[in-house]
Structure formats: C-alpha cells, structure tokens
Amino acid sequence: MNILNSIHNMDVTTFYWLMARKRRQLLTRVSRIVSISADGPLYVLLGLSFWALGYPTWTLIIAVGFALERLLYLVLKRSFKRNRPADILDDFTSFIRPSDQFSFPSGHTSGAFFMAYCLSEWFPEFYVSFYSWSVMVGMSRIFLGVHFPTDTAMGALLGTSCAMLAFEVFA
Questions:
Q1: Which segments constitute the Phosphatidic acid phosphatase type 2/haloperoxidase domain (predicted)?
Q2: For the segment 7-62, what is each residue's pLDDT rounded down to a tens digit?
Q3: 108 exposed, middle or buried (CB, 10 Å; 0-12, 13-18, 19+)?
Q4: 88 to each of 80, 109, 146, 161, how far by Cα in Å?
C-alpha cells in the first residue's frame, strides 16, 4: 500500500501543479470543446460513416474494440472506485460535472486513444494529428478538474491496448 500512497501523492502534486497553470479562461473553454469532441456518440457516427462508405471491417473493429474498451473501463471504474479530485481535495471544485462518480480510468481518454490508434492505422499520414488530439483530450480532462494525471495515463493505455487487440483479431 505504501507504493499506492506514493503514486497518489505524486498524482495530487502533479494535479495541483497543472491546476496552477490553467487559470486562463481560454484554456478552460478550449478544454471543454476538446473534451466534448471525445464524447462517445461521435464514435458511433464515425463507425456508421465507415459502414455507409463501404468499410465493414473498419466498422467491426470500431464496434467490437470499443465495446471491449467500455467493458474493461467499467470493470476498472467499479473495481478501483477512485474518487474524483473535487471529492477528495480541499477547496477544489471541478469546472464541469462528470458523467459518473469515479475517476480511474479516464473514459474520454481511453476512447480518444482507441480512436487515435484506429484512425492512425487507416490514415497513417495523419497520425500526429490523431495522437495530438487524444493527448489534448487527456489534458483537458485534467484541466477541467475531473481526473488526476494517472487516470488519463491509464485511459491512454486502456484505449490503445483495446485497439491493438481489435486489429490483431479483425484486421
């Protein structure tokens, strides 16, 4: 348990350091927009678009891979039950209302990295853009005050791993 306390203390320190740098209103507004861009319904629209354009394998990879990612995400959320920053840090209020109670892992970040991996496989010339966006999603979740840095790091690992597995099985 000592190592978990050390990780948590480092996480809280990093979180406060990042919060001290986000006092600008513009960064908060941009973070909201970036965060919304990683909402799940947009991924459904993307999958349906690939289906309509005649790419059923791509649709299958997105559907099955994202279903696996969501399942593992929910298992981890319910297993770890890590409280969000606003629930455990004194005198801190997040800038948005989170969609659920617990913070570990970040679902927005895992979904973003899942999609960045998939899209980079199909459109490799844009991989820098896709991964830049997914990193911005993770950072936006921290800047909005709903996740600690390790929540987003685990989200990135989860999303990437699920995408890799989906490609291994279906591509």
A1: 59-167
A2: 888 888 888 887 776 566 777 788 888 888 888 888 989 999 999 999 999 999 99
A3: buried
A4: 15, 21, 11, 30
Both tokens of residue 1?
A: 């348990």
* Sequence-ordered alpha helix ranges (H) in the chain: 2-20, 25-36, 40-52, 56-80, 85-88, 107-122, 127-143, 149-170
Cβ atoms 76, 104 nearer than 8 A: yes
Region for residue 83 given its phi and psi (left: phi exceeds 0; alpha: psi -120 to 50; beta: otherwise): beta
Q: Any idea where the domains of the chain sit in the sequence?
A: 2-170
| Kind and range of the H or E run holding 144 | none
Q: Residue 28 is encoded by which pair of tokens? A: 């908060």
- 153 vs 166: CA distance, rounded Å: 20
Superfamily, domain 2-170: Phosphatidic acid phosphatase type 2/haloperoxidase (1.20.144.10)
